[in-house]
Amino acid sequence: MSSQDIPEENLPAEQGRAHGAVDVADEKHPFADPGLPPHEHRIQDVDERAAKRSERTVAFLFTLSMLATVGFIASYVAIPHDQSVYIFPLGHINAQNFALGLTLGAALFCIGAGAVHWARTLMSDVEVADERHAIEASPEVKAKVMADFRDGAQESALGRRKLIRNTMFGALALFPLSGVVLLRDLGPLPEDKLRHTLWSKGKLLVNMNTNEPLRPSDVAVGSLTFAKPEGLEETDHDFQNEIAKAALMIVRIEPDDIKDKQELEWSHEGIVAYSKICTHVGCPISLYEQQTHHVLCPCHQSTFDLSDGARVIFGPAGHALPQLRIGVNDEGYLEALSDFEEPVGPAFWERG
Fold this sequence. Notes:
By secondary structure, the protein is α+β, with helices and mostly antiparallel strands. It is built from 10 helices and 13 strands. The chain has helices at residues 12-17, 43-46, 48-78, 95-121, 139-155, 162-174, 176-182, 239-246, 261-265, 348-351; strands at 84-87, 91-94, 205-207, 224-229, 248-252, 271-275, 287-289, 294-296, 303-305, 311-314, 323-324, 326-328, 334-336.
């Protein structure tokens, strides 16, 4: 479209005159309005084969975006979160993070590149000059806007270029699945993992310091010993997760000083085993007072009475420490007789 095809009232010179521009320079207005340059047709405007090539290019980019989104989801599910790979020149990096970033970036880039290529090669690029108008549109202007919108929709060839339309809808429909998959990390499904630890019938109590199984004679009255389940090693990749649930405090109390009947039944010769994990926010408990049999959490001073079922006697903790039922095997070593009867850790019951 040339300037001659535009109504006189919409010519740039007319719009420019409101700002002091004129068609011909003079002493009062030294700068003339050059007007719009002649419109130059693109090859896609005159050659349908070129237009088809552009259409296939855009569709190819949208299809790549869909494949990248599928690759993102597959990478999230299939690649272990702790696997690393060597990428020159980055060095050793997390394989899952690299795959997620690469596929997510490719999906976004291909959608953007496809949209830009579509706009630059197939959508109308005719420049149209229009006068400024009042903020409140008149009925005539509203009708013109709707007509322009319909013209723009027609010129975009969205209805005619079905291959572009379908692949674009496919890319836009698949891409949000990346965000849906990422929502999984906002709240991992624990299933019943919080209700169980590595403790089970027959598991030996192993001293955390010596890494040796404990005998009753190893636990003196008034002493505090920390234990872990047999078979759990610090070199295990899930050691921190498992010890956070299975860590034990071993204390020996005179049987006559134990006030809780169940605690006495679940002990062995006054040796009681309680979870080391505070029921407030999960801090490890490590401070023991021999005379009162109280243990103190160093984080927020929650205090538990180990001679009375480890009930809370002070502080913000919501419930008593879980007790592990223990006994002695045929070889004289302390062993668990079951797992904890209730989940360990902070505020589990409040979380449901």
